[in-house]
Structures
1.
Amino acid sequence: MPLAIVVLAAGRGTRMVSSKPKVLHPIAGLPMLFHAMQPAAGLDPDRCVVVAGFAAEQVSQALQEHMPHAEIVIQKEQLGTAHAVDQARGALADFDGDVIVLFGDTPFIRPETLQAMLDARRAAADVVVLGFEPADPARYGRLVLEGGRLQRIVEAKDASPQELQIGLCNSGVICCSRKNLFDLISRIGCGNAAGEYYLTGIVEQANDAGLACAVVTCAEEETLGINSRAELARAEVIFQTRARQAAMAAGVTLVAPETVFFAPDTRLERDVLVEPNVVFGPGVQIGEGAVVRAFSHLEGCQVGREAVIGPYARLRPGSAIGEGAKVGNFVETKNATLEAGAKANHLSYLGDARIGAGANIGAGTITCNYDGVMKHRTAVGAGAFIGSNSALVAPVSVAAGAIVAAGSVVTRDVPEDALALGRAEQDNKAGAAERLRARKAAAQDA
Ligand code: UD1
Ligand code: MG
């Protein structure tokens, strides 16, 4: 049975106080919209329709970047959640299957919860609503049950004092066949306190049409919606807490878990050890037994087994660190491969470079990759030794087994096993220091 997802993301999110639509504010570096859509990805939907409104061009751009298969439809005026869903009517006209409606600002629904809704829908119900029992139900829509059957949903603004006593609330997520969804919402009016077309009206319409409605429940934490920067920060905490727990459960040691920050796609193999204050940006993979020492920042990189990174290392996109290699303190790499056992232990910039197996990059070595217009590559062969404070002016190569003397500026390729000296020759003038001091002292006395 095919499945479509409709994600409501047209609201401005006034309380964010932002020029950016709320759904594009990031959690763990990725727009919350994509966190909201992530749990549905596990159900392998055939179609994904995002309803955008406020700053729709920005939403469209972000979708192209992160989720090119998603479609976007525009809700010009935000007349309510039913009106928002109705904007997907045309896009789904030829779709025959079930639809799950999600909110773009609700990023923590678990895939298992959506699966349970889909199962309930296919087993016994025409309309399935996701309910939960919040500690404080104040502003949520209430699920009105009679004889164990869901009769209707009443928004807090429209509820009677008795209805406000109900603890079971509406998360906003619903599941329904495409045909029933659009048939039923076309009958929903806007005669309520807010004058909006409420999607919640679908339950009453379904019951009037003799269809069956059911409730699946989940934990309150799953339904957490984000409306303000403070709630965004809280969402980051929830995401990071889960990511840390998942990493530890998978055999990763986090010395101070609360100081390590993950991206949604961070992949750490077992026995990786992460010291305090480490940030993983998007696209990081780390092999078994590697160590990431304190205060390191990694993104878009692969780190091989048993490698040691940091403390204070920065691995930028395109870095590939081989098995047992070392990237030490205040070393930055970008678009650079360090093959197995290579070492860059101190104070270096390695950009657009390939460092061969077992090569040693001395303290302060810089690959001069940028000439102000173009980027160029540096190649260092296996087992080569680059003396401290050398500048490798790209494009340039130092072949296997070669040695570059400390302080060299290397502008020409160095052949295999050669010694390159690219610096002024030293001249020792006997006794000159003493004569210099005497002259200065005399000038001071005068
Ligand atoms: C909604 C539910 C309420 C539920 C609560 C859970 C309705 C009528 N009410 O209320 O029962 O308890 O969520 O958080 O559905 N949106 C659009 N276009 C619109 C209106 C809204 O895209 O015209 C989007 C918003 O951007 C948001 C989502 O739909 O992502 C929910 O809208 P919101 O205004 O937050 O609904 P609530 O009042 O919270
Ligand atoms: Mg809301």
2.
Amino acid sequence: MKEITIALPKGKLFKPSAELLSKIGWTADGLSEKSRKLVIANDELKLKFIITKTADVPTYVEYGAADIGIIGKDVIVESGKDVYELLDLGFGRCHLMMAVPKDRRRPTLDDYANTRVVTKFPRIAEEFFARRGMQMEYIKLHGSIELGPLIGLSESIVDIVETGTTLRENNLEEIVSIMDSTARLIVNRVSFKLKFDRISPMVERLKEVLSNEAD
Ligand code: PRP
């Protein structure tokens, strides 16, 4: 039996990802986000789990360091990595949008041309604004994006909204939606061919679990 390495992201997607995989028996003793151990193995099933920073999952999978990964569509697109997307897992639903301070909202989107935008997603943001013929200045931050306009670093943000709580609590208002996202199962292209006998049945079982949950 060929060994399979699975990359799981830290953060909000970890728990639903580990829970979903455990429903098809793909789990390992000590598989926890809090574990300081970075590689957790299930020798019996020849599975190896690695827990990585969210943004790094597509990189591990593109290079084949992980055969399989679970990660948000937003992160896949932003990474620009060449990975094969096998399944929409349905959880981790959120959307990427542009937001501005409520009390300083300008009349139209075009009024923000040539201003600064703080984001973790400069690639998606740039593509979005370029399509509208808007040139912007992008400032990449790695977290707490909402701080940007509050302390005068930028006029706006491009960030993820899930419940809307963070926007509300910081008096920001969404002005345009950019893309929807959910968690996806991704696979390394070569692994998919070489380990098809393990990956294909796994995908079929996941599909079953997901369709039973949807009923
Ligand atoms: C994400 C995102 C927003 C927040 C949105 O941040 O960047 O800040 O969640 O969620 P909400 O609409 O439910 O409030 P995350 O918690 O991943 O942390 P970060 O500050 O490190 O980006």
